[in-house]
Design brief:
This protein is mainly α and 48 residues long. 27% of the residues lie in helices and 0% in strands. It comes from Sulfitobacter porphyrae.
Length: 48
């Protein structure tokens, strides 16, 4: 377990899906996959 690691407890097999969904949502909460950025002025291949 590393920094930011945590445990999500499931109460029995029937609760496993809820616990897994909650854990995945918490893990992905602050994740940024990509950002849109404007091209720099005078960048080759742009129509500016």
């Amino acid at each position: 377990m590393g920094p930011g690691a945590f445990v999500q407890t499931a109460i029995g097999f029937a609760d496993y899906a809820r616990a897994m969904k909650e854990k995945l949502l918490k893990e992905l909460e602050g994740l940024v996959v990509s950002e849109l950025a404007s091209p720099a002025p005078n960048t080759p291949g742009t129509d500016q």
